[in-house]
């Protein structure tokens, strides 16, 4: 790009397709990590990035530090979390609801595998099915309608909206064929592990969840304080169900930050995306603190 050479390196984060960017010009190099982690399912990405810089000079590293200052940041991997989810599902006697961002493909794969390991049917909603369809050309994920035994739930606001329904089904014709209704799920709820979001509680579940429901919340726990989740929590209690927080961060942990930076051996480290930039200076050498806009 003009005088600049820009190289993108795939990195593991809670959103599929994230990259670190290496910018080179005038015999100088700058690497911006973006958001990344070393405890997901794709640990080889960071190793490849570190290996690339073994015999190269890195002048500036713009390094994310979200986890600096966060207490109890023990290393729990996506594989560990999958095992935890399996344990919860095995203990459940009713419908299991999974609330997470389907763009977090590692987590999506974890729930699909947990359903398979516990003998349940994974029910994707239309949005989750569309995400799987979009990324199926880049990674080996099951696509509902093509993969056997993975039905798709269309929320009422999509299914009854002809324009939305036609748009989805025209792009992914197999999704419509794999449709499952709430009524079918509620006929035998203990068979299913279903993607859930509070918006379908009122319109699709008619404001009432089945008895002994288990809801696995796999997002930042701060969302549970929002009004829609307060209402959902009340409905779970009324159904004699349980709400479990099962989540790990999409950001690199404190100890991994130190190891990652030391492996790259940059001339200068500039902290970004952190509430505790001072911790960079106390734990790493050659740190330059810059203010926003500087």
Strands, helices and their partners?
Layout: E1 5-10, E2 19-25, E3 28-32, H1 44-52, E4 60-64, H2 78-91, E5 96-99, H3 105-117, E6 121-125, H4 126-135, E7 152-153, H5 156-159, H6 162-171, H7 173-177, E8 179-180, H8 182-187, E9 192-195, H9 199-203, E10 214-217, H10 227-238, E11 242-245, H11 254-264, E12 268-272, H12 277-283
Description:
With 294 residues, the chain is α/β, with parallel strands linked by helices. 36% of the residues lie in helices and 18% in strands. It has twelve helices and twelve strands. The protein has helices at residues 44-52, 78-91, 105-117, 126-135, 156-159, 162-171, 173-177, 182-187, 199-203, 227-238, 254-264, 277-283, and strands at residues 5-10, 19-25, 28-32, 60-64, 96-99, 121-125, 152-153, 179-180, 192-195, 214-217, 242-245, 268-272. Helix 10 links the parallel strand 10 and strand 11 (242-245). Helix 2 runs parallel beside helix 3 (105-117). The protein is elongated. 33% of the residues are buried. The mean pLDDT is 93.
């Amino acid at each position: 790009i003009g005088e600049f050479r820009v190289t993108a390196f795939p990195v593991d984060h809670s959103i599929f397709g994230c990259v670190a960017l290496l910018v080179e010009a005038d015999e100088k190099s700058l690497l911006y990590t973006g958001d990344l982690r070393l405890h997901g399912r794709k640990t080889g990405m960071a190793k490849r990035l570190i290996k690339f810089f073994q015999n190269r000079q890195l002048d500036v590293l713009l390094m994310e530090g979200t986890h600096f200052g966060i207490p109890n940041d023990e290393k729990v991997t996506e594989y560990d979390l999958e095992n935890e989810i399996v344990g919860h599902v095995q203990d459940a006697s009713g419908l299991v609801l999974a609330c997470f961002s389907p763009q977090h493909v590692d987590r999506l794969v974890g729930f699909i595998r947990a359903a398979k390991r516990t003998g349940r049917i994974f029910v994707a909603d239309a949005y989750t099915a569309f995400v799987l369809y979009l990324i199926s050309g880049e990674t080996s994920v099951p696509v509902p309608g093509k993969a056997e035994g993975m039905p798709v739930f269309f929320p009422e606001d999509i299914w009854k909206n002809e324009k939305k329904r036609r748009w989805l089904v025209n792009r992914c014709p197999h999704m419509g064929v794999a449709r499952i209704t709430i009524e079918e799920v509620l006929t035998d709820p203990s068979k299913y592990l279903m993607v859930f979001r509070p918006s379908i509680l009122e319109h699709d579940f008619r404001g009432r969840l089945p008895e002994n429901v288990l809801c696995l919340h796999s997002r930042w726990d701060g969302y549970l304080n929002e009004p829609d989740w307060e209402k959902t929590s009340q409905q779970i209690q009324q159904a004699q169900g349980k709400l479990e927080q099962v989540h790990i961060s999409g950001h690199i942990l404190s100890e991994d930050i130190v190891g990652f930076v030391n492996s790259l051996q940059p001339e200068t480290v500039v902290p970004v995306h952190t509430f505790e930039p001072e911790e960079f200076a106390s734990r790493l050498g050659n740190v330059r603190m810059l203010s926003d806009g500087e």
